[in-house]
Amino acid sequence: MATKKLGKQTVKFDHPPVIIATATTVGPKEGEGPLSSYFDTILSDDLYGEKSWELAESKMLRETVKTAVQKANKNITDMEYMLSGDLLNQLMSASFAARDLGIPFFGLYGACSTMTESLSLGAMLIDGGYATHLVAVTSSHFSSAERQFRFPLELGNQRPLTAQWTVTGAGAAILASYGQGPRITHVTTGKVIDLGIKDANNMGAAMAPAASDTITMHFQDTGFTPESYDLIVTGDLGAIGKEITEEMVYDQGYNITKVYEDCGLMIFDNKAQDTHAGGSGCGCSASVFCGYIYKQMLEKKLNRVLLISTGALLSTTSAQQGQTIPGIAHAVTITNHI
Question: What stretch or stretches form a coiled coil here (predicted)?
């Protein structure tokens, strides 16, 4: 019997895991944004001393894990699992980082939902008694993502106003069965939702239905309301997807407007930095949560947060074959109070 299950899609933990430390690494553009003071490392060069953007992204992920472990006053050997993923084929960044770190590795692909996917599964491992310490981490890189999913940067293609700017960033969270810090109390696992969007330059619209569905199911399963939270924050819907999500959730009877933000609109100053609809990428929610939101929770400026990382499950193959773009979103409740 699933004794920890609430409703259809939510789990409530008996022994809520603690997030004892986080770390972030971001690129130069992110370091010029409004959240710059909350990041641990800001790169001056997005190649990070490597020969390719893909290797730079893997190094970024690897070094972020090391920083998080150090901030937790632990050793790499204390990490029993590493749950990680990225946007590249065969999870190149995460796999190469796991090779170098030597931590037992679960490779995850949820596109830009990977941060809450890794937090969800990591929390289940901790609460289930299968680990004492683990790291949940993900990354993205503007240049590697553009090369794989859109156009070579050398072409200088004009981006439509619906397009988003993939965040160059990585965020890592150390989860533990004991210690001080905010705790993960609930996980709502999302379903794949596809309402027929085909435009790879309008990811927000493709992901919004999944975000709306997960948020609504979270409220229905738990009995929580928007007023239960200081902040409800999606991963990377941007301006267009955020507006659609607000409307769709409202149609289901929940007004989240007063407490709702999107990481893609927080990490950049869209007008000053010309990011069009906002930020995107696995590293978007990872760096905003592990940087800004986590520190706000440590300072008790935020006490209960619903984090919903959002992903567009397309590939170059599916896009070239004219397929629609399925979306996915996973939610975690993170709180200072049990």
Answer: none
